[in-house]
Write a sequence for this structure.
């Protein structure tokens, strides 16, 4: 009697059993899986090795470092234990699959299917996510800059929509979004905006939003009913705290020119103007930041320094990535600001991410619901896959 | 003159309306009547602090914020903060309490004991209220009702010389300038916090008399006085005979703004 197991899954799980080794066709996907398994096996061996080196009373200073390593690899060990025990059960089940009693055979095959699914999830999801090297930017908050591009007022109107989308998205991820710059367009919409998104992991998720976002629709202002294409540029930068900015030594105060904008006449008690715009120039890079949305000089200055630090940190990270590795395998190369990454087509109720080649046929859910999460999840997955590829290639 | 409401102000008014459950239209109308934004919103950021602002007490200005922040760093070159031997500070005409409160906030806990005086009941009440809002205890800052040009002022119970630091943003607008001020200041802010007499220097003369008194200021005392845009030289002339050596700091807009003086 045939046993109905999903062929690809069976292949993965049985592959690691010595009894079936070498019998299987080496497709690209199983090749990848076996490399992941080898990498996991290597980590588990290392762990066992470290454990055996621990001194009896755990008193030496080296022990502390070792204990930390053990702690780090503990989640992997736990999943590995699940994996091996499931494999063991599957192995034990094998004779029953050919049992003379049909009821027993059925029971066994049902259980085998279940186990196989479990193994497949471990192999495809749990192991890879545990192997991904910890992101160096994993703790960082984000700063989103939105600028209207082609399309005039229509672009500004769409910018307002995107701004709302990101604020909602941030809230639903339990981050804390604050709009720090909001330059309204006189004829409607917002010319440019900056949103601070505070929360661990905000930068790592949002960074893939960097690029050109394109909207295709009939503008409210268009009487002829023609579809226009307009764009909004999004730049996502890592936000670092003031103390950390100093540690990173992103700039020296000697390289900063600070200007206060607008004459105040006699100033002091003679004047009560509410604007307090400042402009910072980082002379070596030529970056200038103007800030006027806060109510005091001091706050505007702090904000301006925050934006400057974020921009310099962004440059630093881009530079480091370029130095560390060629990103040839990545769908999404290091954030290229001029790349068209996504199209929002109103007539078709469609949003397409051009890097993923993924379309969501529900524009409203992307702008007002949880649709964006699907894109960010897929982009995160891609970046993790790339990181694993990189790691596997090194061995 | 027609008044145009800047978009940033409209945004702040909107969020104030939403937060305090007041009708936006009423807030906008008040602003169009030239009431200062800070009175309508009820707060003004001052360095990292958010101070309560309340008619008619003088609203803290950005020039003051700027020099107080610089002055705090300047002081740390001369004094090291020690909770066991706190520095004492006297602020004359304290208003919202902005100057001593920011310094208390910037200096380590209980390393500074500040006293503020003001002739206005409203200001004294507001300054003490602001101290509570900023989490600064009465042992670090207290404001008292007092007229510092009164000859009896040094004998007041709340005044305990010698002081290590003397600060003041006294009224310095001349009588003729006062007539030229825009409505948002002239119609709403307390004239007693603004007018410094015929030549705007009345209160600096009173301050010069105070600091010349034996034992009023400590041996290594430091003085910081905010001045009007063209009063730097005149105030220095008043300070020099008291045995203090004055220098003038400019504000970020290039105007002479603060006279800093150390004992010779």
């Amino acid at each position: 009697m045939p046993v109905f197991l999903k062929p690809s899954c069976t292949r993965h799980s049985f592959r690691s059993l010595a009894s079936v080794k070498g019998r299987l066709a080496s497709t690209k996907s199983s090749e990848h899986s076996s490399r992941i398994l080898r990498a996991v096996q290597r980590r588990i061996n290392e762990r066992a090795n470290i454990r055996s080196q621990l001194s009896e009373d755990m008193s030496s200073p080296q022990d502390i470092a070792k204990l930390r390593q053990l702690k780090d690899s503990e989640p992997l060990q736990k999943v590995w234990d699940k994996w091996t025990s499931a494999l063991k059960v599957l192995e034990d089940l094998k004779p029953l699959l050919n049992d003379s009693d049909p009821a027993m055979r059925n029971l066994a095959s049902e259980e085998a299917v279940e186990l196989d699914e479990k193994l497949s999830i471990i192999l495809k999801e749990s192991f890879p996510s545990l192997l991904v090297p910890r992101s160096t930017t994993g703790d960082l908050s984000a700063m989103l800059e939105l600028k209207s591009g082609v399309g005039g007022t229509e672009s500004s109107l769409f910018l307002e929509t995107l701004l709302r989308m990101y604020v909602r998205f941030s809230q639903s991820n339990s981050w804390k979004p604050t709009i720090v710059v909001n330059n309204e367009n006189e004829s409607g919409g917002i010319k440019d905006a900056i949103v601070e998104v505070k929360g661990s992991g905000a930068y790592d998720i949002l960074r893939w939003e960097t690029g050109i976002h394109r909207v295709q629709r009939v503008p409210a202002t268009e009487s002829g009913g023609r579809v226009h294409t307009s764009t909004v540029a999004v730049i996502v930068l890592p936000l670092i705290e003031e103390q950390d900015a100093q540690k990173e030594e992103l700039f020296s105060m000697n390289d900063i020119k600070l200007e206060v904008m607008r004459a105040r006449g006699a100033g002091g008690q003679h004047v009560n103007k509410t604007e307090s715009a400042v402009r910072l120039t980082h002379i070596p890079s030529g970056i200038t930041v103007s800030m006027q949305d806060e109510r005091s000089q001091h706050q505007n200055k702090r904000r301006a320094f925050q934006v400057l630090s974020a921009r310099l940190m962004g440059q630093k990270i881009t530079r480091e990535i370029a130095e560390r590795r060629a990103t040839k395998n990545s769908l999404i190369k290091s954030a290229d600001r001029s790349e068209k990454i996504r199209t929002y087509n109103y007539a078709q109720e469609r949003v397409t991410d051009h890097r993923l080649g993924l379309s969501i046929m529900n524009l409203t859910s992307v702008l007002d619901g949880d649709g964006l999460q699907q894109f960010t999840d897929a982009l995160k997955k891609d970046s993790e896959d790339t990181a694993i590829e990189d790691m596997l290639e090194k061995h | 003159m027609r008044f145009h409401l800047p978009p940033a102000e409209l945004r702040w008014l909107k969020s104030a309306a939403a937060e305090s459950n007041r009708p936006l239209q009423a807030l906008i109308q008040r602003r169009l009547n030239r009431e200062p934004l800070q009175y309508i919103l009820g707060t003004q950021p001052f360095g990292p602090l958010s101070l309560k602002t309340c008619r008619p007490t003088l609203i803290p200005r950005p020039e003051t914020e700027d020099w107080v922040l610089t002055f705090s760093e300047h002081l740390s070159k001369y004094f090291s903060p020690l909770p066991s031997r706190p520095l004492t500070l006297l602020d004359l005409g304290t208003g919202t309490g902005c100057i001593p409160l920011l310094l208390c906030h910037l200096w380590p806990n209980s390393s500074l004991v500040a006293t503020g005086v003001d002739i206005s009941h409203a200001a004294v009440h507001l300054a003490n209220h602001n101290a509570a809002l900023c989490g600064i205890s009465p042992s670090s800052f207290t404001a008292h009702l007092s007229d510092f040009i009164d000859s009896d002022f040094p004998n007041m119970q709340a005044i305990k010389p010698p002081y290590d630091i003397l600060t003041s943003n006294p009224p310095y607008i001349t009588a003729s300038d006062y007539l030229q001020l825009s409505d948002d200041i002239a119609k709403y802010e307390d004239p007693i916090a603004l007018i410094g007499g015929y030549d705007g220097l009345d209160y600096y003369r009173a301050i010069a008399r105070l600091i010349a008194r034996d034992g009023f200021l400590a041996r290594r005392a430091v003085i910081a006085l905010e001045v009007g845009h063209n009063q730097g030289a005149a105030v220095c002339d008043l300070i020099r005979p008291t045995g203090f050596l004055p220098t003038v700091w400019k504000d970020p807009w290039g105007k002479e703004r603060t006279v800093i003086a150390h004992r010779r």
Observations:
- Residues 1-33 of chain B form one domain.
- Chain B has two domains: 1-33, 47-263.
- The interface with chain A takes residues 6-9, 11-12, 36-38, 44-48, 58-59, 61-66, 69, 169, 171-173, 177, 181-182, 184-185, 189, 193-194, 226, 228-230, 251-253, 255, 257 of chain B (CB under 8 Å).
- The radius of gyration of chain B is 19 Å.
